[in-house]
Amino acid sequence: MSWESRADRVDHESPEYVWQQIADDLRADIESGELSAGSRLPSGPELGEIYGVARLTAIKAVNALRDEGLLKVLSGKGTFVTPKKS
């Protein structure tokens, strides 16, 4: 998967929080299979650059997906898509 700029996927005028828009975008990629189980996501600062937001905003989106069980954060190794549960 290519991680080119996704700043155009964030609408700063929307009533929906920016971190939620990013979480929704990443969730869609996971559900479609574009991001498959075991895929490694860029770091928080890198995701911030990709989406054109502060790194903490990107990290909040990652944490939300982690809490949903879609991502696993391994300290010192990275953030990975978890396998789908049947």
From TrEMBL:
Coiled-coil stretches: none
HTH gntR-type domain residues: 16-84
GO molecular function: DNA binding; DNA-binding transcription factor activity
UniProt keyword annotations, A-Z: DNA-binding, Transcription, Transcription regulation
Keyword set includes Mitochondrion: no
SUPFAM superfamilies per the UniProt record, alphabetical: Winged helix' DNA-binding domain
PROSITE patterns, alphabetized: HTH_GNTR
BP GO annotations: negative regulation of DNA-templated transcription
Record-linked Pfam families: GntR
Keyword Transcription regulation listed: yes
Family annotation (PANTHER family): GNTR-FAMILY TRANSCRIPTIONAL REGULATOR, MANNOSYL-D-GLYCERATE TRANSPORT/METABOLISM SYSTEM REPRESSOR MNGR-RELATED
Protein name per Swiss-Prot or TrEMBL: GntR family transcriptional regulator
